[in-house]
Amino acid sequence: NGFMLGVAQKLGFEHVYGIEPSADAVSKAHPAHRGSLIKGMFSSNLTGENRFDAITCFQTLDHIVDPVTFVRECFAALKPGGAVLFINHNIASLPARILGERCPMIDIEHTYLHTKNTMQQLFEESGFTDVRVFSVRNDYPLSYWLHLMPGSKKLKQPVMKGLKIMGIGKIILPLYAGNLGLLARKPHSP
């Protein structure tokens, strides 16, 4: 929906573009960013001659049918010395190991589930250097965390109602909930 375009501009990037496959998301984007959104699936062909200093990709790689090609397309779309920042689920995280098949990461929309090691390997084999993979902290309200937990709605609804009545459902709870981040760079020369 273009929110990251505004963040990038605040960080000093002058020319920002977003690629979004959902026409609905593009239509709901802030008017200031709608003109900078390209509707479609990312590929270096879609961006034409444009090459980028940075590419971000949040909670998307798990949904990509061919992540190897996708990461190589990102590499091709970067200027030499350009960087990527990816954030996605970590199937080897403690919450995923504890919850097993009840983990929200395991659903039909997630084509591939990654670990720190598979992310490192994927990007290094695609030509990236200075690859750093790290755990990501998520700061969400207590009610959101409860919503994600496995269990019946019958049990969760009264607890959610109780959190709301007590006024504590909106308390932000920072947790390492199973996401990983990756920073990597395209070499300055081949």
Overall helicity: 25-40%
Q: Give the helix/strand class.
A: alpha/beta
Q: Mind describing the biggest β-sheet?
A: 4 strands, mixed
Overall body shape: globular
Question: How many helix segments?
Answer: 8
Order of helices and strands: HEHHEEHEHHEHHE
Rounded Rg: 19 Å
Unreliable stretches covering 5 or more consecutive residues: none
Strand content: 25-35%
Ends apart, CA distance between termini: 35 Å
The chain-level mean pLDDT equals 86
Summary tags:
27% strand; single chain; 4-stranded mixed sheet; globular; 8 helices; alpha/beta; 190 residues
Task: Break the fold down into its secondary structure elements and pairings.
Layout (H helix, E strand, L loop, with lengths): L2 H8 L7 E3 L2 H6 L2 H4 L2 E3 L12 E7 L8 H11 E12 L4 H6 L16 H10 L3 E13 H7 L4 H14 L5 E14 L5
Parallel strand pairs: 1-2, 3-4
Antiparallel strand pairs: 4-6, 5-6
Helix pairs in contact: 7-8
Quick description:
With 190 residues, this protein is of the alpha/beta class. The protein is 35% helix and 27% strand.
